[in-house]
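Hello,

Following up on my earlier ticket. Below are the two sequence lines again, exactly as submitted.
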Amino acid sequence: MLDRFTKTALVLMVVLTAIFIVGAYLGYIGGHEMEGTDAIVEEHAASTAVNVEATSSVPAITDMVGEPLGFTIAGIVAGFIVGYLWTGLFRREENA
Amino acid sequence: MHISDGILTPEWCLVWFAIAIPFIAIGVWQMKRGTKENASYLPMLAMMGAAVFIISVWHIPVPVTGSCSHPIGTPMSAIIVGPFPTVVLSTIALFFHTFFGHGGLTTLGANTVSMGITGTFGGYLIYVLLRKINSPLWVAAGMAGFVGDILCYLAAALELALSLNPGSVLSHWAIYSLGYMPTQLPLAVAEFVFSAGIVQYIADRRPDLMLGKLWGEVTDA
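Thanks for your patience. The regenerated structure is below:
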């Protein structure tokens, strides 16, 4: 039997994943590239000045494994940290 | 609001670092004080750090505009662990974002000023003002998230305009802001929802973990 935290986490994961998939699908069938707004504005800003171009001073994980897998890794790592600490902080209340 | 390396001039990179460093120093000092006074503060900081890291890097598709962007999470963190420590958390998060192709090392100061300082303090100020007029906690927290998110992107647009278009800062600030806003407004609404929900939840379940009570008012046995 799943505890309340696990149930809530699973529901959140399904809802968030559904939002991402539906949002991306609707965007793509609308003919959009679904680029990041940061990059779009940055490219436009760079085009207004001379000799300005975005560079990268560190090797990006997303360049090596792709954005979907890179962000999945980030989500898993951050999710484990948040989940571990969240259960620790709120378990203290139950024991008090 | 992640500005990449190579976009801002070196002078402006230094200016933004100079502005960010005092906030980071105060934040580190407050973190040390907080962890001494309450044992729950350190795990709360770590949790908020991880939350800010993932909230502010994971692009959410916005189909109506055909692009994607991300909330920032720092207003929520400011309400829970404090605005100055949140600047430190966002700087650490922004550093790790560079390894995911977002932002850059030379622009770390600029990105800290937009997300870590403007977004954090803008949102926190709204929260304090709304609480002073007896607004419900969830409304104040939600509005902090909404306003902090928008202010963060206005600050990023200003950073771009100041560095790249010194002869026409105001008009280019408006242009870059308009570039960000259509995608950012729906995400600011999402920021309202999760900031309101999480802050209200923590205040209901563990009020001792809220900022005002973390320092001094509660002592661990």
